[in-house]
Structures are given as structure tokens and as C-alpha cells.
Amino acid sequence: MTHEWLTQLAQAALVLGLAPLLSGVTRKIRARLLRRQGPSLVQPYRDLLKLIRKEAVIAENASWLFRAAPYVIFATTWVAAALVPTFATGLMLSASADLIVIVALLGTARFLLALAGLDVGTSFGGIGSSREMMFASLAEPAMLMAVFTLSLFAGSTELSSISAYMLGPNAGVSISLALALVALVIVTIGENARIPVDNPATHLELTMVHEAMILEYSGRHLAVIEAAASLKLLLYLSLIACVFIPWGTALSGAGVLAYAIGLGAYAIKLAALAFLLVMFETATAKMRVFRVPEFLGVALMLGLLGTIMLFVSRVSR
Amino acid sequence: MTPLDSDIAHLLAGSLVLVSFVLLYQDRMFALLNFFAVHACVLALSVGWQAYLQRAPHLFITALIALLFKGVIIPVALHRIVVRLGIHRTIESVVSIGPTMLFGMALVALSVVVMLPVTQSAGAFVREDLAFALSVVLLGFLMMVTRRNAVSQVIGFMSLENGLVLAATGARGMPLVVEISVGFSVLIAFLVVGIFLFRIRERFDTVELQALDMSRGESA
Amino acid sequence: MSVSVGSVALAGLLGTPAFGALLLAAIPSYRVAAALNMALCALTLVCAGLLYSHRPERSLYLLVDDVNTIFLIIGALVGFTTSVFSAGYIAHEVQSRKLRSRDLRFYHALYQFLMFAMDLALVSNNIGLMWVGVELATLTTVVMVGIYRTNAALEAAWKYFILGSVGIGLALFGTILVYLAGQEHLGEGMPAMAWDRLAAHSAGFDPALLNLSFVFLLLGYGTKVGLVPVHAWLPDAHAEGPTPISAVLSGLLLNVALFALLRFRLIMAGNSAVLSPGPMMVTMGALSLVFAGFMIYRRRDIKRMFAYSSIEHMGIITLAFGLGGPLANFAGLLHMAMHSLTKSAIFFGVGYISQLEGTQRIADIRGLTHSQPLLGWLLVVGVVAIAGLPPFGIFTSEFLLVTSTFARSPWLAILLVVGLMIAFSALALRLHGLAFGKTDKHHTLPAWRLIPMALQLGLVATAGVYLPGAVVEWFRHVADQLG
Amino acid sequence: MSLASPSFLSQLAVTGVGLLLALAALGILAARRSLGSRLIYAACMLICSGLAVVALAALLAPHSRSEAIELTVGLPLGRTLLGFDPLSAAFAVIINLASAIVSGYAIGYGVHAREPQRVVPFYPAFIAGMNLVLLAQDAFSFLVGWEFMSLASWALVVSEHTSEDNRRAALVYLIMATGGALTLLLAFGLLAGPEGGYAFAQIRRAAASGAGPVVLILALVGAGSKAGLVPLHAWLPLAHPAAPSHVSALMSGVMTKVAVYGFVRIIFDLAGPPSWWWSVPVLVVAGVTALLGVLYALMEHDLKRLLAYHTVENIGIIFIGLGLALAFEANGLGVAAALALSAAIFHVFNHSLFKSLLFLGSGAVLNATGERDMEHLGGLIHRMPVTAVAFLAGCIAISALPPFNGFVSEWLTFQAILVSPQLPQWIPRLLVPAIGATLACSAALAAACFVKAFGMTFLGRPRSDAARAASETDRWSQSAMLALAGLCLLAGILPGFVIDGLAPVTQMLVGARLAPQSTQPWLRIIPIDPARSAYNGALVFVMILIAAAATAFVVRRLASNSLRRSPAWDCGFPDSSPATQYTAGSFAQPIRRVFGSVVFRAREHVVMAKPGEISTARLHVELHDTIWETLYLPIIRVVDVMADRLNRLQFLTIRTYLTIVFAALILLLMIVGAWR
Fold first, then answer.
1. Using CA atoms, how far apart are residues C28 and C36, in angstroms rounded to an integer?
2. In Å, how far is D649's CA from the nearest CA of chain B?
3. Closest-CA distance of chain D to residue C291, Å
């Protein structure tokens, strides 16, 4: 019991600490691939601190929702991220919130973010919110379909059980899993405002989505939102890691050594995934807004296909 | 009753049907009126014969009514109306005479057919008599629907009603026959007076109702 | 003791209107006549009420049994309420110069005579007498329909007269045939015309004669009932005549004719060999239901519209009786009673409306719930009731009818439901136009004049929620007889 | 009535209904002055609360004193039985709870009605009708209550009778409601059999052999038209908004639930044992309904119409649960059936809460601004803070987002979907994943829909003077809305108790129940087995609170807490005119482009000014209500044509009529002649 709590807390702290680093790493890799020097790995931490120290400037007609939203968004994202086993399974909370809950928590965060984008009443905020919700209307079901596939495969919707099952002997390779993986990757790209769906690094571009929503934010609010964004990216990557490359993850109650190994393995997995992600990003070009639904629609179709295959192939436990 | 009696009864009833056909055949107004008078007289004879057969004196009253009212008064009245309304030219009938006659034949056949299954117990006399009466009724009805002219339609109705009286008197010992015939006479008086009062030439066949409906916003 | 009371009541039931007709014929002033008219109707109602508890012994001519007591009472009641309504209505018509007192010379006398004729038809145990009653009633109404002397009114009256007389003839022929059928077993003369004996002995009658007779009776009396295809006179007679007469026509005369048909249906029911009359009645009923439903859509005259609604309901009832079976027959009887109460009430309302608005054109009438709330809402209630929604009696009968039908012949039930829907949609469509909408008119109508309408609708609502056990027993008994 | 009598609770409930009817009568007089109507609404609130308590007692202690009582009134040939069983008790709790709160709202709101005498008398009658449907234990009183409910709500819909649209709405509603009732009439006719055993007990004993499929179709049409299943939903988005808002809340939040009850009662209770394929039509219709409902809602700019359309979507979700339950029950998978059924009824409960809440909020907005069109609203969060908070809670809840209640029922439905591979048949196996995808899709679209609803109404800058001049509503309305919001949250974080409350229902209908939840450690819910799935709303909620609080705390410690207000930046192109904001239409545009082109045959075309011509460019959007055009218009046309054709018969000549009579006579004679 107690060490479940400890793992949970460690986990929460870990994701919180690691998230900015991850975005730092991605930026660095990206810059290197583009033959640039790029900022240092800890630059995101600096940015956050700087933003937090700055005076916050908000529009005259911004409501309390505008000011409260960042914290709630951050909190929900953080809780969701803390639910994904990173270096060890058997977390305290994963027994009380499963994969569907994680998806839904991200949905709550998105909901509030979209509202915040509408709050000031600017045209850019509106663009951002409406497009974000349009993407979500395809990305979320795609994600859920991938979740279905996994949980039918593992006979459970709990991440700990799922990754434990994946570690276990009777986890075979299945076409459904591959489909789910592809769907999950596409959703990851779409949900984290990466190229080719959105560009995290731009401003003043009509196609921007995420940046348009948070356009009116500044100072600490902006900092919190940025942190939430990087947490989200981390969440998706560690989700993929714990399900599809579970090796090294420590089972609950294993010894300290196992935990250490798990930690190391986790770091390597993250780095690898980040590299792959950036590779993909740099290899592709940003697509027009109304191409994106087709992109995400593919994910939905794949996820559905995987689920149906499982439905007809085996009786779930 | 002796066979002869019933044969006479049959003869009279049959001749009534025959006169109905003649009525159906007529296309001259005055001739139609005269032959209706004949129709009434034949009916009166037949009713009287029944009265004699059934020893039912009250039927004589019916016969008398038929003779006087329908045989004399009504034709005369109609005659004047016809003159008054100036419709003594010809009777434009909806269907031409030939088909009408054929259809009339068919009607007689039909009435015979529907009477066939009537059991013998009712007595052959009743059966045939009913068949004749039914034919008269149907022929009268046919006349009503094939003539455009009010007066000839009234005549059709009256011949229909003659058929009814024939049937009623044919039914042995049927009560209220006299009252019924009186009632019908009143009815017919209504009709004739109606035609006379409302100057109904073509009213049976009018399109005025439609016009009125239009004016009342009843059109589609 | 009760016997004598009963016979006195019966004498009163027939004597009051007969004598009243003579009396009223002698009274020139229509005001006095109207008052007297109400008094006489009240007296008739009392007599009818007495018959509820005291039955006179049957004779060859007259008969009071479960079947007709109900209709006697309802008839007397509606007759009375209509006389009350008629008093106010006629007064208004005279004020507004629509009628001259000369036209009204025999109006009330005829009204009483009509009552007499219908009571006669109801209580007669003699099929000839019944025929006479129905025909007298028809001819009386012919005269009353034409009372406005307008071209349209004369048209309607004339149409009614012609079609009616043909119906008379056919009905008579049917009656003669029944007599012939009975005569073989019951001997010549009166006994062979006494309904109860005919019904009792019909088992041995010649089926061929009975079949033939029923054809003629169905068409003859069906003309009076207003069944499609022999309905043509009905809408115009309702629309062009004075509204009290429309109320009596829809509320009573149709019922009386249908009652006559029922009597013969009972005779037929006794004989197993006959071609069952069910299918014929079902066909005509369904035809009337659907046809009238469609006709309502295009009506622009409010009274014609409700006249078609009467055709629709007569169709439903005929269909129910044609279907047979305890439940359906029960439903049919209940529906007859409820319909006559509701429809006459609606016609009261329509009469007031056309007087207040000065028109019968539906298009010109709107927002009644605003311009005259009480009247408007009563109309809404009436239409809701006639459309067969709870908590009104017609819903009960339609519930029984539809449920019992669907279990036996689904397609018929579906047809029935479709027909109901067609008619209902049409009525609802018109109701929204009449009762609601923007209007700045404000009519004043003394509340007491709405009492008859409210009373009858109240009765219908009560019947929808609760029927006294005795009444249920009667209906059930009759329904079982009908087979 | 004595406390000891075996039908004590039923007697209480019937008394309550009687009181409501009496109130309706009183209302005719009381409506003249505002105090009177306030009192009526207050009385409604009290009675409904009482009824809710009674029903709860009947639900939690099923066999104690809730026998049906027989009344002497009602169907002449049948017996009138009124009483509670677990099913009706559960729905009675849901309905009366919502009704009570809505009545409380009406105490404040109801006095704004333009013609109160057209509203106040029918309001209690409406509630009475719904309760009668639930209490009925025989077909006749069921249908009487059903029609009574429709009739009263029709009167309420037409209460604003001066507007043409409302009259049309009322007409469509009345016609479709009656059609549905007649369909149910047929269904009961089939169940009751030719000699008419109308009492539910008799029907159960008869167990309708072979009649099942027909009954299923009839129930789908009859109850579905009332509930708003596509394609029978046409009346719903017309009628619900037309009524005064507190009535809209009842119609959308409560009456549709009565319809669901009707379906459950007929199919699960009366129609006898189901066969697996029954679930197929139900699931298909439900999926279509869920998706189309939310898409319709997204295209709507009228706040109340949007909410009404969204009711259609939720009904779809409910029926998905019911369909799954049917499939499981038919295959003897008791627990799974119990899970699906609990999910469905849980969603019924949730929807009754948040849809009422949202309609009440829209009523408050309508009252404050006189506007229903979102294009003329905006910025109300500043002027109506309380309403905004409550409405936001409703939006989050209805979008199925944790920690509110909407998520729990949807989560349960997903769990039910995830156990459906146990179904032996292939068709449901192929169908269910698609249904799951539909459900997920509609949930995401619902979120979009309510971002739009809340954002356009409460956020941004006011788009009209009315919105600029708005002010907060009265205390009664506020507290009612807050109460509903609180219930939404409570049901979201303590779902275990609700699920346990539904156990008797599932026990009664599918003969199985979920494991007791409220006794689980940490208040979590475990539908089937802890290793499989679990959800702990309370814990998640607490964690979010803690995390948010901690973050806020830390940031405040580190940050310079200074805050400066300045004009909106908007990427350097600030525009003072509110017209430059995103509108409801522009918000929905991307989704319309993605989904609408198929469903609504949506077409956009831009009309540009010709070169050298001075005129504004215009964007025209055309949407088609495909269902109305393909299903309803043809029927209307057919009726029209028939009416025209037959109408000619009104204008024939007397001779022609005689000919017809003659023909009829000949025909009949020939029949008789032909008959031997």
C-alpha cells in the first residue's frame, strides 16, 4: 500500500520534472537535424521561470474563467500524466482511473482551453478553439478506439494491468496492436500540435491552432499552460512506451534495482520516441487545415479496424 | 288460391314490369306521363286483385289511391307543370335508350337471381311476385339516374314506389300497407309541389350547388 | 307498481312531444314558443329518466329494453340542452335579421315533432312503426334544414329530400322482406312485425330473404346514418340548416338511424345461416372513416367540417358493430353515446362562434381562446374529446376498439389507426387556426349560455374516467346480444 | 391509508397525483395574480419532493408496502391498478427530483410568462400525467397518463400562441404524439390479446408468444417518437424550445425519460424473453440518433433549439445502453446486461439533471436578454456570474467530462461495449465496435457543441445591446440551477450509490445485478472486476483539486503577482467592434465542412463583388434537413393529393350521388346473388 503511494508520488514528481526537459530535447534534436546549434536542453525551464516572474497582462474583458483555466488545465493534465506508468506499474491511482479516464481528463483540459480561447472575444482565439474542437472530434474517438483495442487485447482498461499483460508471457504480436499503434502515433502528433498538423513554434500564421488559443495569455498563466502542453507530450510518449515497449518497466513490489532499471529504460524509451517524432516532423511539411481531418480520420478508421478484428477474432476476458 | 288466381296475379305483376320498360323507353315527355298513368292503373289492378285474393278489403283503399292519385291527379299536375316550364320537347337522357334497355334487362335478371335461393316455403307466388317487384323498383331507380330532367326523375321515383307497393301488397297480411301508401302519396305531393315552387327544371342535375360552394369557400 | 309508472312514463315520453307539437303549432310568438319548448323537453327528459328505473311491459308496438333506454335518455337530454341552446340561438338570429318570425312560425312545433318521431323510432317494437318514425324524423328535418330560405339552404334541403326519399324506399323494401321472412314462422299480421319476436325466432328464417333484406336496410338506413357512399346529403344539411338542427342531426338522428340498423343486426345475429353482415358494415365503416378524414382537410366551412367528423365517427361505430365481439360491440355502443353528447356540444359552440364572428368560414376565425376564452377553451376541449384523447369517453371506446381489433385482424386495426390519424391531423390543423393565433377581437357572451355545452363535455369527461356499474352492465348485456 | 397497509406507498403516491390535479384546477383561478402562480409552483415543488421521497422508499425497500392499489375508476371492463415496482420507482425518483427543482426555479421564473393563465394550470397537470404513466400497472391507465402528459405539454407548448412558429410546433407535436400513442395502443392490443387482459400482471403471464418482434417495432415507433429517436424526432426541436423555459426543461429533461420508461417497460418487462436480434434495430437506430442529434445541435444557433437537438443525442446514448442490455439478456449474460442497463438508466438520471439545468440556464438568459439566438449574445459571464457557473457545470457534465456525472454513465456504457465480445452472434459483434466509435465520436462532438454554446453565450464580448444590458436572474432561479449543478457533481464523484440504487431495477428486469458499489474501499466503482476496470470519481476530483491548489500556490510563491489589464492583443490586430469575434456560425463552420456536407447536403458559396464594383462579398450557406425532406414531406404530399382528389366528390350533382347509391345497391345485390 505505502509503496504504491510512494511510486505514485514519485511518478507525479517525475513527469512534472521531466516534461520541460522532453520538449527541450525535442527542440535540440530538431535544431540539430536542421543543422542548427539550437538552445540548450534546460532552456524550457528557463523560459518557464522567466514567464512566471513576468507581470501578467490580460485583456480588459477577460473573465475569471480566463484566469482560472490555466491552473485547472495544468492540474488535469498532470493528474492524467501521473496515471501513466513510466518506470513501474502498480500505481496507487491506476486502480481507480483507467485509460478511458485519462482520455477524458485530457478532454476536460481541452474543453477549458477552448473556452479560454473564446473568452476574450478575439478572432484568433475563435479560430483556434473551433479548429481545436474540430480536430478533437476525430482525434478523441481515434484515441478511444486504440484504447478499446488495447483493453480488449489485455482484457482490461487499466494501464497497469495492460502493461503488466504486455510484459507477461501470453502477449503475442497482433495486427490489431500494430493498427492501434499507428492510430496512437497519429493522435499523438495531432493532439500535441506537432507538424504536420500544427506548428508549435509559429505565430502570426492563420493555420495555427494551439498557439491561437493561448494568444492572449502572458506571464504566469502562459507559463502554466506551456508546462501543461509539455506534460501532455510526455504523457503520450510514455503511454506508447508503457504499452508497446514495456520491457524494463518494473512490476509493482519489485526491488530497488528493478526500479532503477525501469527508470533507465524509461529514459531511453523517451529519448528514442522523441527522436522518431522529430524525425517525422522534420521529414514532413505542414498540411492545410482541412487536410487534417482526413489525416485523423485515417487514425479513427485504423483504430476501429483493430477493434473489430479483435471483436471477431477472440472472446475477451 | 287456385292456380288461375296466381296466374292472373303473375300476369298483372309481369305487365307492371313491362310498363316499366315502356317508361324507360319513352323519350317524349307527354307520352311518358301517359304511360306512367298506365303504370299506376296496372298497379291498381294488381293491388285490387291481391285485395280480392287475400280477402283484405283495406287493400282496396290502396288500389283506389293508386288509381286516383297516381293515375289521374299526378299526371295531370305534371302535365301542367311541363307546359308551364316549357320542357315538353324531349327528354335528354344520360345514356342513350339502347344501352339503358339492355341494362334494364340485366337488372331484371339480377332480381330474379337474387330471388332464386328463397325457399319454396315462402310460396312460389311470393317468390316471383317479389322478383317482379324488385325489378320494378330497380327499373324505377335506373330511370331516376339516367334522366336529366326533374319531371321524368319524379316519374322514375314514383314507379320505384309502385314497385314497393306491389311488394307490400304481395306480402300476405302485411299491416300498415294503406298507411304506407298514403305516406308515400304525401311524399310525392311534396316532390311535385317542390318542383313547382322552386321552378326546378334541372335542379336534380344542377351544378349550382358547386357554384354556391365556391361562393362559400368550399371549393378545393 | 313500477310497471304502471313505467307505462305512464312511456306515454309521457311519446305524448309530451306529440301534444307539444300541436300546442306549439298554435302559438305565434317565437319567444313563448321557445320557453314552452324547453319546458316540454324538460318534461320528456323526466319521463325518459323514469324509464331508467321503471320499465313498462312490452307490447306488440312498443318496447323499452336495455338497448334503447340509454339512447332514450341521451336523446332526451341532448334534446333538452339543444332546446335551451336553440332559444338563445334563435333569438340572436331574429335580432340579426337572419330569420323573420314568420319563418319561425312552425319551427318549435317541428322541433317537438322531430323529438316525437325519434322517440317513436326508438321505443317501437314494430319494425314498420320504427320505419315510420325514422322517416317522419327525416322529413321533419328536411323542412327545418330549409328554414333559411337561402339558395344554399334550399339546395341542401332538396338534396336531403331526394336522397332521403330514395333511402326511405329502400328501407321499406328491406322491411317488407323481413316481414316476409318472419311471416312464415310467426303467422301473418302484426306478430310478424314485432321486433322482439322476430329476433327471438330468426333462427329458422329463410337466410336468402334476410340477406336481401339486410342489403336494402343497410343502404336505406345507412343513408340516414350518413355512411359513405350514401352520405352525400349530410354535410350540406348540417352546414346550411340552423345550428340547433345540426346538433340534433349529428347528436340524435344519426344515432336513431344506426339504432334501427342495430335492431336488424340483432335479428341477423340470431340466424346462423345468413351471409354475415359484418364484412359489409366493416367495409362501409372503414370507407366512411378514411374518406371523411380526407374530406376534413379541404373544408372551409366550420359546420361542414364537423359534419364530416360525424361521418367519420359513424364509420367508426359501424365498423365496431360490423366487427362484432363483446369488446368491439361495447366500444361501439359507448362510442355512440359519447359521440352524440360530444358532437352536439361542439355544434353548440360552433353556433355561438358563427354568431359572434358573423361567419362560418374557418379562415376568418382565429384566436378564439383569446377573443372569448371560455368558449374558445370549451371548443378546444370538445375537439380534443371528439378526437379521442383522454380523459374523455371516446378515448375509452377507441382504446377498446383498437386493442381488441389488433389482436384479431391486425390489418384492419392498422387501417383503423391510419384513418384515425388522418382525421385527427385534419381536426388538429383546423383547431390551431380556430382557437389560437393573434386577434384583437373581444366577444362578450353571457356565461350561462355555455352551460349546456359545458354540461355535456363534463359528462363525457366523467364517462371517460368513470362509468356507473349499471350502465356498464347494460352495455355489456347489449354487446353480448349483438354477438 | 395506514402505515401498516401493504400498499401504503402506492396510496401516498396516488394521493400526490391527485393533489397535483387539484392544483391544476386551482391554477385556473390562481394564475390571475403573480402570487397565486408562485404559490402553485411552490406547491408543485413540495408535492414533487414528497413523491420523490416516496418513490425512493419504494425503490430501496422493494417489497415493503408498495403493492398496487385498485381504483374503481378507469376502464369499464378492466381493472385500474396503480403502484410502484422497482422500475417505475426508479424512474419516479428521477422524474420527481428534477420536477421538484424545476418547480423551484419556476417560483421565480414562472411569473414572467406573458399569459400565466395559459401556463400555470397545465404545469401541474403535466407533472401529474407523467407520474400517472409511472404508477400505471395496466395498459389503460398507462395510456391515459401518456396521452394526458402529451396533451398538457401540448397546451404548454402552444401557450405562446401568437407566434406562427409556436403554433406549427404545437401542431406537429400534437399529431406526432397522438400517432405514437396510437402505435402503443396497437402494441398493448397485441400484448393484451383478444379478450383484453390489460393489467400488466396478466400480460406478463400471457408472455406474448411470437408477438415479440411486432411489439418491438411498435414500441420503437411509439415510445421512440416520444423520446425523439431519429427519424421520429422531428417534433422535438420544434416543441421543446417553443414552451416557456421551465416547461422546456421538463419536456426535454423529464418527459423524454418517461418515454424511455415506456420502452423499457414494454420490451424488458412485458414483451417476454427477447431474442438476440432485437438488439440490432435498437442499436442501429440508437447509434444514428446519437450522431445525427449532436450534428444537428452543432448546426443550430438558437440556444434552446441546440439544447433540444442535443436531447436527441442523449436519447441515442441511452438506447445504445438498452440495446446492449437486450443483446446480453438474450444470451443469458446477466451481469453484462445489468451493467448495460445500469449505464442506460444512470444516463437517464444524469440527463434529467443536466439537461434541465441547461434549459433553466437558457431560460435565465432568455429572460435577461430576450434573446435565444447565440449570434446576439455574448459576455454574459460578467453580468450573470451565477448563471454562468451553473451553466458551465452543465456543459462540462453533458460533454461527458470527469469529474461530472455525464462521464460516469458514458464510462459504464464503454465498459458494457468492452464486454460485448462475449456475444456469440456475429452481427452484434461487428455492430458493437461501430456503435462504440459512434458513441466516442458523438461525445467528442458534444464537447465541441457545448464549447460553442457556452463560449458564444457567456464568453467574449456582447454582440447586442440586449446582451450588454443583461442582469442576473432572481434568487429562486439561481438556487435551483446551483442545486442541479451540485447534483451533477455529486452524482459524478459518488456514482456508487446511484448504481446500487439501480440494482433492484436490473434485478427485476434482467435477473442480475452489479456487485454492491457503495461498500467498495475509497468509494470507487468496479462494474465487473477490479483487475479489469475501475473508476474513482471522488479521488480523481480530489487529486485535481490538490494539483490545481498546489500549482496555484507554488506559482504565487514564485511569481510577481502583479496583473495588468490592457486591451486585447489579438496578434496586433485588435478590433473594437464585437462583430469581429468568432460567431456561432463560424465556430461550427469547420465541423460543418467535415461532417455536414453529407448529412445536411451543406453547400457554401461565396458571392464576390465584380471587379470595379463596390459591394460586400457574401457567404451563402444552405443546409437541408434531409430527414424531414425525405420522410415527412412525402407523407404530407400524399395526404394533400388524396385530399384534393377526394374533395371533388363534394361537388357532384344530386343525380350523380343517386347513381352512386344505385351502383352500391347493385353491387351489394350482386354479392348477395353470388353468395350461396
1. 12
2. 10
3. 8
Structurally, chain C folds into a number of domains equal to 1
D668 contacts on C by Cβ (under 8 Å): 215, 218-219, 280
ipTM for the complex shown: 0.91
Whether residue C237 is contained in a domain is answered as no
Looking at the domain assignment, is residue C433 inside a domain? Answer: yes
Residue D604 phi, psi (nearest 5)? -120, 130
SS3 assignment, position A263: helix
Instruction: Enumerate residues 6+ apart whose C-beta is below 8 A from C13.
Output: C44, C47, C48, C51, C72, C76, C119, C123
Tell me whether residue B43 is in a domain: yes
Summarize the confidence of residues C302-315 as an average pLDDT.
Answer: 95
What is the residue range of B173's domain? 3-215
Tell me how far apart the alpha carbons of residues C132 and A158 are, in angstroms, rounded to a whole number: 89
Q: State the nearest Cα–Cα gap between B122 and chain C, in angstroms.
A: 7
CA distance B158 to B175: 21
Q: Do C389 and D194 touch (CB under 8 A)?
A: no
| Distance in Å from the first CA to the final CA of chain B | 62
Residue C414 located in a structural domain: yes
Is the pLDDT at A225 greater than 70? The verdict is: yes
Q: What is the mean pLDDT of chain D?
A: 90
- The number of folded domains in chain A is 1
B39, C39, C122, C344 from C81: Cα distances, Å:
49, 11, 19, 9
Per-residue pLDDT, A1: 62
pLDDT interval class at C277 (50, 70, 90)? confident
B220 part of a folded domain: no
A125–D524 C-beta distance less than 8 A: no
Domain count, chain B: 1
Q: Is-contact C365 C357, C-beta < 8 A?
A: yes
Asked if residue C182 lies in contact with residue C193, where contact means CB atoms within 8 angstroms, the answer is yes
Q: How far is CA D462 from the centre of its chain?
A: 30
* pLDDT of amino acid D262: 96
Domain membership flag for residue C216: no
Q: How do residues D652-661 score in pLDDT, each as one tens digit?
A: 888 889 999 9
Query: Inter-chain contact D548–A56, Cβ cutoff 8 Å?
Result: no
Quickly count: other Cβ atoms within 10 Å of residue D558's Cβ. 14
B88 part of a folded domain? yes
Nearest alpha carbon to residue B174 among B114, B139, B126, B128 = B126
| pLDDT greater than 80 at residue B212 | no
Please report whether residue B195 resides in a domain: yes
**Interface list for B 139-198 with D (CB within 8 A):** 141-142, 144-145, 148, 153
